[in-house]
């Protein structure tokens, strides 16, 4: 019975090997059979002996580490490899010079994006060059130029290299017949050159339009799409979309012209419209945002007059960025003033005015001080920096050389404002990416005659509405003041003068708070009458008869010429005619219900009720 089972197993293995050999790529090797007897030998050693038998180099993956024992009966090369692949979960590929053997879990998958080459032409080239192997996955979407590959890493790499070589050749051929053109594209709003922001010992580069386009033209665009079809715990590489390097596009060049704030593009004529379209999308007007910062120090002994118990933290709800709790039982990051007025760390105008009034009261009593109140004007999504700092230098002694190390402390504010949603909303929201650093010298904390510095850093992302302010508080600071008192004349006498003078050192603890007031700067009523603006105010301002701006174009744009009688309308037309402006009349309805006429400033010729300047002969 056992002999029968053994014979059946051998027959089954032979049948499996025969069926898999039908899918194997043909090997142009001597078709002599291979025999081998293994006694606890490594599978890698068996494969190397197999390659040596046919005079072929073998590259075996490090993950192939099995031990084998037994006698291998004579088989043809491809059948023997397929037999091992089935038993030990392997895959193999012969590239014409080296036999590559991997574990099946090392299957590599790629999504190949073709630009000029077709999938049919690529496959034909792979077959003619001997790279093609029908055993492995190939799925093509011809009309999209997409090919999905899966197989041994060496096989997939050869296909990608072949595709890149063919694509490069086609592009060079196309570029040789497409002449290069140079075009200057001026910018209206965006900056062509990079902007450099320097503060302390750091530099931040804000790329201009030229830098953005240059990266698109010269970079290799590779995007991770999905994971590889293999053991993700062992290999974290992802499936990639492979595209051509943009640098092969016939020497395309993008440069900035600072004097004209323009972009100079050199490329083929067929691609110049792409540059114009992209630059037009990038060159958009940005809203102006004004950020006022108030830095206030209040004596810790007198802070109780505000009824505030500062405890810095982070709150998640109710838009509270800094958790400022009170001495009473008030939740949600509220601030309670002595009179009972309550507000959150996001202050409306009324609460802010009340708080500033209390601060001015304490300031008049010498218990508070407005350290600074700078105002920054920046554009949306452009970083603004406020740096008010002190610097001292520390001598570093080496064995042969000395150096000076710079130590800087003070107030540093970095803020990037961004409008959330519609800027024409009734109360648009402003997103603030805020980094605040506040440093001060520690009184009596010097070491080796060098001052000690304490720094406080706050980084947060807050969203406030137009008209609101962000309050950050609870940062304690210690200040030491030295005061010399003496009796005039007597205090200056040597030796004896010490009896008539005294030195007093006073330590004062203060609470520093920051009030951030962002505000969108609008261009008056013009922002509300733009064509296409859904918050159009023309129906409201069109009812005004008196307006300070007496511009005829503006009145015509918003239809401020009210409906009047024919005599009054013609009088307006004569006034416009004296200014060399054409106009015509359109019918409207007077408040009395009678028919009226409205003046419209526009070019006209032979239309009814048209008045235009006489044409020169």
TrEMBL record:
Cellular location(s): Cell outer membrane
Domain SPI-1 type 3 secretion system secretin N0: 36-102
Domain NolW-like, residue spans: 110-169, 182-287
Annotated Type II/III secretion system secretin-like domain residues: 362-521
GO-annotated biological processes: protein secretion by the type III secretion system
Biological role: Component of the type III secretion system (T3SS), also called injectisome, which is used to inject bacterial effector proteins into eukaryotic host cells. Forms a ring-shaped multimeric structure with an apparent central pore in the outer membrane.
HAMAP family on file: Type_III_secretin
Pfam families: Secretin, Secretin_N, T3S_SPI-1_N0
Subunit structure as annotated in this protein's UniProt entry: The core secretion machinery of the T3SS is composed of approximately 20 different proteins, including cytoplasmic components, a base, an export apparatus and a needle. This subunit is part of the base, which anchors the injectisome in the bacterial cell envelope. Forms a stable homooligomeric complex.
PANTHER family the UniProt entry points to: PROBABLE GENERAL SECRETION PATHWAY PROTEIN D (PTHR30332), SPI-1 TYPE 3 SECRETION SYSTEM SECRETIN (PTHR30332:SF5)
Source organism phylogeny: Bacteria, Pseudomonadati, Pseudomonadota, Gammaproteobacteria, Vibrionales
Broad class of where this protein is predominantly found: membrane
Protein name in UniProt: Type 3 secretion system secretin
This protein's GO CC annotations: cell outer membrane; type II protein secretion system complex; type III protein secretion system complex
UniProt similarity note: Belongs to the bacterial secretin family. T3SS SctC subfamily.
Record-annotated membrane-spanning stretches: none
UniProt keyword terms in alphabetical order: Cell outer membrane, Membrane, Protein transport, Signal, Translocation, Transport, Virulence
InterPro entries named in the record: Bact_Secretion_Sys_Channel, NolW-like, NolW-like_sf, T2SS/T3SS_dom, T2SS_GspD_CS, T3S_SPI-1_N0, T3SS_OM_pore_YscC
Signal sequence bounds: 1-24
KW Protein transport (keyword) present: yes
The keyword Nuclease is annotated on this UniProt entry: no
